[in-house]
Amino acid sequence: MSPKNLDWTAPLSSHKAQLVLAAVASGVAVGSTILAFQAARQNQKLRDIKKSIRSRDEATALTEYGAPATVSKLQTEPDAELAAKARRGDWDEELILEQLARNRVFLRDAGLKKVRDAFVIVVGCGGVGSWAATMLVRSGIGRVRLVDFDQVTLSSLNRHAVATLADVGTPKVLTLRKHLEQVAPWVEIDARNELWNKENGEMLLSGNPTFVVDAIDNIHTKVDLLHYCKTNGIPVISSMGAGCKSDPTRVNIGDISESIEDPLCRSTRRRLRQKGIAIGIPVVYSLEKPGPGKASLLPLADEEFEKGKVDELSVLPTFRARILPVLGTMPGLFGLCLANHILTHIAGYPMEYSHGKNRIKLYEDIQARLAGQESRLRGNIIGLRLKLTEADIGYVVEEVFKGKSVVSGIPTRLTLTRWEPLPFCHKEDGFWGEEDHRLDVDGVVLMTKDEAKKHEKEVLINRKSPEEVWGKEVVERVNQRQQEESFYAKYR
């Protein structure tokens, strides 16, 4: 019989049925009471937490220069005390898990535990680094060290994750810590208002970090940090240039060997190659190409140069003193990508990035062709070995000649060729030996295979001048590439 045909108004004939119904009603009432009590208790805990966190309305007025007129109450003891108590265990684990609930169901308990046990160091806490640090703390990373020597400026506010007008003039690391302690007081946040360099690098990266974030925009410091992490086996991810970028669909994560269309990344990659590091560092970079009407690095105004001592305009003597246009949204995207990579990597969450084209086979082919050319020019030496390794060839192809023929600019069917012919031979057998005038990085140029054949016949064998064969413009281009290589060679 279906429920709609039952007569619920009729007296229950069974005493047993009456007892069952009473028990069910009682159970529902008790369960509802327990749930209501638990909800009320949790709401009370949340109210207590909110009362213990100071309001941002307590920030002080600013001076005419945009700095706090007095020390903000947000920087006083109560927030620090709350954070210290939470790190000592005076915090409800149930509330922590509730705050991290969405991450918990995504990464699962085992993954979230790895995240909470992790120690991440963020070097550079500007637009990119502040967003990375913020999302790492919000996502449950248990211990974070913030390293930056700089202060918040008014121009920082278009891209910094948490800074307000009241923070102008205060160290970026203290601004970040102050804010993040109100978000997750149980996270241990170590703020170091210092410049990372080779001299203090070991100290600032001490403690066996799970991961290091490179959010530095100075090329010298960036290369030193990445080289230190790589040679010391410290996992690191680096942010390339977010300045002058505007297309969020072009932001990528990949190995440093795959990154293109980014001057900062190109220079970083080139200097690391010269230090023996060609692959193995994940980076966040943009594939967006420069073009007419797009932002570019701006020189200082003429009147600034007329004042003299332009180097004093930079934060440090070796730091850039030019104006870098930055759309405020892009550093945030880069920082979020950094944090996302670290969280999924630590938790063991399966990720598969779309990687660039593998060119190892291309380098092997170029090496074999170049060895064949050298053998022919020396009288068909059997088993001739080049001084140039596959890594050297990859460096010349990608960094020196940007993956394009120096003659035509064509990016396909490429090979390297000797640029200048061997000197006239004065040996008895009429040929140079394997060790005579061996090729180096600055002695080869990138051409298409057809162009290289022509160059070998006309220049290397018939000894016509390169300018006679290719023209003045190509020769000047080669000279420019060789001069650039001479500059970068000092970083080897």
UniProtKB/TrEMBL annotation:
Keyword Amino-acid biosynthesis in record: no
Broad class of where this protein is predominantly found: mitochondrion
Transmembrane segments: 20-40, 118-137
SUPFAM superfamilies per UniProt: Activating enzymes of the ubiquitin-like proteins (SSF69572)
InterPro entries in UniProt: ThiF/MoeB/HesA, ThiF_NAD_FAD-bd, Ubiquitin-activating_enz
Domain THIF-type NAD/FAD binding fold: 102-357
GO cellular component entries: mitochondrial outer membrane
Top-level taxon of the source organism: Eukaryota
Membrane topology: Multi-pass membrane protein
Keyword tags: ATP-binding, Ligase, Membrane, Mitochondrion, Mitochondrion outer membrane, Nucleotide-binding, Transmembrane, Transmembrane helix
Biological processes annotated in GO: cyclic threonylcarbamoyladenosine biosynthetic process
GO MF terms, alphabetically ordered: ATP binding; tRNA threonylcarbamoyladenosine dehydratase; ubiquitin-like modifier activating enzyme activity
Protein location: Mitochondrion outer membrane
Protein family membership: Belongs to the HesA/MoeB/ThiF family.
Function: Catalyzes the ATP-dependent dehydration of threonylcarbamoyladenosine at position 37 (t(6)A37) to form cyclic t(6)A37 (ct(6)A37) in tRNAs that read codons beginning with adenine.
Protein name per its UniProtKB record: THIF-type NAD/FAD binding fold domain-containing protein
